[in-house]
Specification:
The protein is mainly α and 103 residues long. The chain is 52% helix and 0% strand. The C terminus is likely disordered.
Length: 103
């Protein structure tokens, strides 16, 4: 598997786990000590999440393998094309930009 595809799958797995824990990007970012923009980049596969894997494991309650080699369903490019945006839109923003997806 290409590195970019793996990072994208890791990002989708991260987004899925965050939503399952009912955390906003801002809440997860605060727990990780990073900006919500950094979480957005990790979820979109624009930035690797591996430097935060220990904290992600603890915060989201998933094993290392979930993030390092995500389940096969996260390798499908259609996974989360629209549901996460809908889930995020229903949550109030915590002082961040109006639309993080515009970045």
């Amino acid at each position: 598997m290409e590195k970019t595809n793996l990072i994208a799958a890791q990002g989708k797995a991260l987004e899925w786990a965050r939503i399952r824990k009912n955390l906003s990007r801002e809440e997860l970012a605060s727990k990780l000590g990073v900006s919500s923009q950094q979480v957005w980049h990790m979820e979109r596969g624009k930035s690797s999440l591996l430097s935060h894997i220990r904290s992600l494991k603890r915060i989201l309650g998933r094993p290392y393998s979930f993030f390092i080699d995500p389940p096969v369903r996260f390798h499908d490019p259609k996974v989360f094309d629209s549901p996460p945006a809908a889930a995020e839109a229903s949550r109030p923003a915590a002082g961040g930009p109006a639309s993080e997806d515009a970045a």
